[in-house]
Amino acid sequence: MNLKLGFLSILFLLFFSCDQEEKVKTLFELQENTGVQFANTLVETENLNPYTYKNFYNGGGVALGDINNDGLLDIYFSGNLVENQLYLNKGDWKFENITKKAGVLSTDNWSSGVTFVDINSDGLLDIYVCQAGPPRDNNRHNQLFINNGNLTFSEQSKKYGLDITGLGVQANFFDYDKDGDLDCYLLNNSIRSVGNYDLIKDQRDNATEKGNKLLRNDNNIFVDVTKEAHIYSSAIGFGLGITISDYNKDTWPDIFISNDFFERDYLYVNQQDGTFKEQLTEQFHSISMGSMGADAADLNNDGNTDIMVTEMLPKTIQRQRNKTLFESWDKNALAVKNGYHYQFSRNALHQNMGDDTFFEISRFSDVHASEWSWSTLLFDADNDGLKDIFISNGIYKDLLDRDYLTYMANEDQIKELIQTDKQVMKKLIDRMPSKAVANAIYKNTGDFQFKDQTIEWGLQQPSFSNGTAYGDLDNDGDLDLVVNNVNMPAFIYKNTTDSTKQKSITVQLKGTLKNTQSIGSKVEVYYNNDKYSVLENFPSRGFQSSVSHQLTFGLGNCTNIDSLKIEWVSGSVSTFTALKTNSVYTFQDPNTPLKGNSKKEVSQRSPLKLTEAVVNFKHKENKAVDFNREQLLPEMYNNEGPHITSADINNDGQQDFYIGGAKGQTGTLFISQKDQSYKELSKPFQMHASSEDTDALFFDSDNDGDLDLYVTSGGKSFSKYDYSLYDRLYINDGNNNFTTSKTVLPFKTPISTSTVTAYDYDQDGDQDLFVGERFKVETYGVPSDGYLLENKGNNWYEISNEKALKNMGLITDAAWKDLNNDGKKELIVAGEWMAIQVFKVASGKLINATKEFGLENTNGFWKKLQIVDIDADGDLDIIAGNKGENTFFKNTMRMYIADFDSNGTEESIICYKKGNDYYPIVDRDELIGQIASLKQKLLYYKAYANATMGSIFTKEQLDKARVFDVNTVQTTLFVNTDNKFIPVKLPNEIQYSNVTAIATTDVNKDGYLDLLFGGNQYLVKPQFGRQDASEGWLLYGSKQKNIFEKIISLQIKGQIRDFNILEINHKKHLLTTLNNESLQIYEIQ
């Protein structure tokens, strides 16, 4: 009896659990039995396959629009080897295939992009379909199906001049010249193969007949104005995305083109005279390499249009190792040199800063890797007022599988197949791996932070997805999703948002006579007193697709919006107030343009004014490539200068300053003169031009009442025996004449130093020095020492034997400051792969007090310290510059150091942590290039895909390794609270790049200290991507402790290395040093 009851109980629990699982609702639900049976089926043949046609697996598009004005969105799918299909929305998630009777079959065509647009201005949506496929003589032109008003269409492309032949990708219809009608940008992918003409300079200037086209609408005839409008139409235009928006807020539409393969993307800025100016390299610091689809929208509700571009970087480290071939440093440098800009293998999220600058922050937002991706759409999926990111993923055959390319499709294998088999292509393709992957959706949580909700929101079905479109298919106030797939049925997703909790408002625009859908108009919504959202009416988006012309705003729990403003493409402006949410509103363009309504909105300007140079100094970095010496390095370390130090040397009340030189460059001393100019001194510093100056300090070495100069020598471009690594002490004779000290500094061997700071730690009346060692030049990562130089008088120093300073880490900065207000200074030291460390002086010795001050868990990549009372509470706080979050460096990274191959040289291997395992960050080829003994173990890339330190090396090898961990990459403010330092989060923008320069001053004269940050690091391996998403930041302080009012960009381009604030002509100035650039001097206004 008990056994029977137990069995029944188990059955009940099982059934109950299953029932519970079935009831779990997700945001998106895949609809079945809708009547939609479209599948873009591709079958490879010997004559038609990805080898004979490079875009074979690019897939088809999808368009949403109401073709019969019944209030329901209909669907058009484009197919490649299958016929296109048009589905009429019958309501209640039922669709009818009316393709044949509608006359839109597009038989025997390779269709790609599709757009719903009212070409003939009759109020009915027409269909424009781009044609692609392998070249042939007939039936290749794009098609225009004119809506007859009775659910039938007539193909009339020739009548309108739109019967264009090429490798069509997508058409975008918009009024670029503001003459009231719709023009067209036609995106054509180059028909040429990739390879023989890669990276040749100025290729994009060579126009071709089959390239991209800008077509002006002249009385319903589309005329090619590509050349006169300054649009590129070259054979290297491998465009896959065309994204229109008013990026600079001057009310004129601009054009962003995402290009695949080696060609860079384009940004065409509308010049308001029928022409465009291509300005991508001026406005973007980094872009994606194999750019695919793209979309544009305001992701942080600041009124500026941001851009998301997809690429092919897989999401997991396992697939990245096996499916991605990264560029070498040399090839990347060649591409940049020849005008192809800074391209990197990852998705790109470009934040529009509102000042004609975009920052690429995909790694900060964690949307940089999503698989082989095609479309991206930016829309508010959950109606919370923030636009989310959807990405379609998958390619039917893994064309870039590295084992396939290396072992199954190499030259020898192909020759063998040619000799033994007539079906060479088919055999090669059959050998290609194939794996469906899930699409991705990222929830916007605000401030460019996103959370992967693919599984939670119900989009985890593996697929080979391409074109996608969103629209409210069931008129319930949320946006549904339609996805075109290769070799599987299309997805129709219902959005299940509860509109009683997450409300919305939908706007339908009625335009003027020749632009009935008012394409190009902008709608802004103000709600809940301080919230804002904006949408632009440009339906062609993503990849080969177009979305609904209706604009749906998610508004959270808002019941009534405060106001709605429409900036019509005609130039009219309309404002409406007190509109109820969960409603659809239709508005008509009054066609009463405002005069002078094309003025560009200007973002808040920097308070810095670049002045004419009062001194001439240009840093000239050496061109050494650190990767040639250490293959496992992720970035170079020979570009950390120049640094600047200042003091009043000649006692005239004005600050003088010394700027360090690079290897092979003389450092320079600038001394102020009575006429407010500066005298430039290069003697005796030119004697040490072979050294790289890494830091400098004015202090009174010999207690004679004047300031002497200590200069540290460092860098990585030296042998460990090179005398150029010795630091220098220059003695002031009292008349500002400096000579090299006759007394030798006490270092027994050359070391690469990074920082120097002075304090009379032994209280004997003279200044002692702390000098930090940056690294061991032969192997990055081996811990370095700190040195306490005890001043014995007459410029004689002895190294104090301080055990606490041994093997500290990779020291970058240090300072003596009184942190606990006891009248004695502590030594604070920062560096990479180490905590911020604090040392107290006790009984003439340094004692590590890091834990006492609460800093024991701060292991980071620290580069800069600024110690100041930021909150005006009477004690000193610490501002510390770190790597930031927009980088491949992450919290929980680990570095192993050992002689893994027993050849007498140590290697440092940096790893990601995934679960409890550590995965080397380097590529398999790099690892076996450094440690050749691993080649047999890691013969195949798939063997390396899941390889961890524990599987690559023996336990004995790992036990012998020194291990270093990092637990924070954030630049951080540590607030001193009862002599314990508490981390305070800084604004996200500070984390967009590394921070190597920090200064504090009261910029706006409100009595509160403001913070200035600078950084960037360009010399990073291409697979990791350079850090460039900063032009310096100004963070305004406020009366609220540790709360900052606002942040603005300083608009200083380059790799900022140091700040120094001083008075020039009785005005406060910011001196800014930049690596390999001229000194910049800004008046603080």
Explain what the structure shows.
By secondary structure, the chain is mainly beta. 9% of the residues lie in helices and 36% in strands. It has 13 helices and 74 strands. Strands 55, 56, 57, 58 and 59 form a 5-stranded antiparallel sheet that branches. A 4-stranded antiparallel sheet has the order 1-32-31-30, with no helix packed on it. Strands 2-3-4-5 form a 4-stranded antiparallel sheet. A hairpin with a 5-residue loop joins strand 49 and strand 50. The chain is globular and about 100 Å long. The termini are far apart.
List keywords for this structure.
1085 residues, mainly beta, 4-stranded antiparallel sheet, 36% strand
Number of helices: 13
- Strand fraction equals 35-45%
Structural class: mainly beta
Q: Give me the count of strands.
A: 74
List segments where confidence is low: pLDDT < 50 over at least 5 consecutive residues: 1-21
General shape? globular
Radius of gyration, rounded?
32 Å
Percent of residues in helices: under 10%
- What is the averaged pLDDT score? 95
List the helices and strands and how they pair.
Blueprint lengths: L1 H22 L4 E3 L31 E4 L8 E4 L7 E7 L2 E4 L1 H4 L8 E7 L8 E6 L11 E5 L5 E3 L12 E7 L8 E6 L24 E6 L2 E4 L14 E7 L8 E6 L6 E5 L5 E3 L1 H4 L3 E2 L5 E4 L8 E4 L7 H7 L5 H9 L5 E2 L3 E5 L5 E3 L1 H4 L7 E7 L8 E6 L8 H7 L2 H10 L3 H8 L5 E2 L1 E7 L2 E4 L9 E2 L1 E7 L8 E6 L5 E5 L7 E8 L11 E6 L3 E6 L3 E2 L3 E2 L4 E6 L3 E8 L5 E8 L2 E6 L19 E3 L33 E4 L8 E4 L8 E5 L5 E4 L11 E7 L8 E6 L14 E5 L5 E3 L11 E8 L8 E8 L10 E8 L2 E5 L9 E8 L8 E9 L2 E6 L2 E4 L11 E2 L2 E5 L8 E5 L12 E5 L8 E8 L2 E4 L3 H7 L10 H5 L3 H4 L2 H6 L1 E4 L6 E6 L2 E5 ...
Parallel strand pairs: 18-21, 33-41
Antiparallel strand pairs: 1-32, 2-3, 3-4, 4-5, 6-7, 7-8, 8-9, 10-11, 11-12, 12-13, 14-15, 15-16, 16-17, 19-20, 20-22, 22-23, 24-25, 25-27, 26-29, 27-28, 30-31, 31-32, 33-38, 34-35, 34-39, 36-37, 39-40, 42-74, 43-44, 44-45, 45-46, 47-48, 48-49, 49-50, 51-52, 52-53, 53-54, 55-56, 56-57, 56-59, ...
